[in-house]
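input
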Amino acid sequence: MIRQRSRKIAFLALVFILFAFCAHAGEVLTASPSWKGFTSPDGQGLYPDLMRAVFQLRGDTVRHLDVPAKRGLIMVREGQADIYTCKAESVAGLQLAQLPMYEGEYHALFLTKVVPQWNGPASMSNKRLVWRLGYYAPKDFPVPIEYGETTTGTDALKRVLRGAADFYVDDLHLIMETVRSYPDAIDEKDYRIESVGFRQYFPVFSLSERGNELREAFEQGMRMLAEQGKLGPIYDKWGLPMPRVYQK
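output
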């Protein structure tokens, strides 16, 4: 009798576990434009790897859609996608996670003849900055600036080299990529690259019940992966820094 009761309890426990798993198991759809090292049309990059690691904890699969930024945000707002990766600032009608996926230390490239003495961001006061369209804003700098935007890093670098701008601002690896791919050789003695600040990027969710559920799952999953020591290797794989909030 006791054995039968134990078997019944064990069976019910198994049914409960399977039910809980099935209640969560499903597909999570992410959306964003391509950004080398972060996302790509074939679902490769830091963001897809993080999403897969997080949502596999609860049995979900993750599928990524490569779409323009504006379209991706509209899709999340309208329930056609679950998560947009990623934004640094809040978006009307949507919510950001409380934990970041990426923390970018952004840098500035400048000619040493234009700024012979670097005194930190103060050296940028009232200077002409240039960055890729939509990447930064005046509020990202502690001093008053003038700024312009370009569609590519190459165009931004060209402005600095021609004297049409004083600083080209971008993530360090993107600046280095631009320098390496620039059609004309640039003497390393002619320029410097200095850190000017940090900015965090967060996944974007809808303001729906599902959006709340996925946001909480993302935050819990990132904490769990960090505690288990499984988060760092994902960032290392892509040569990108793990946000300081996850570092012990």
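quick obs: The first helix runs from residue 2 to 24.
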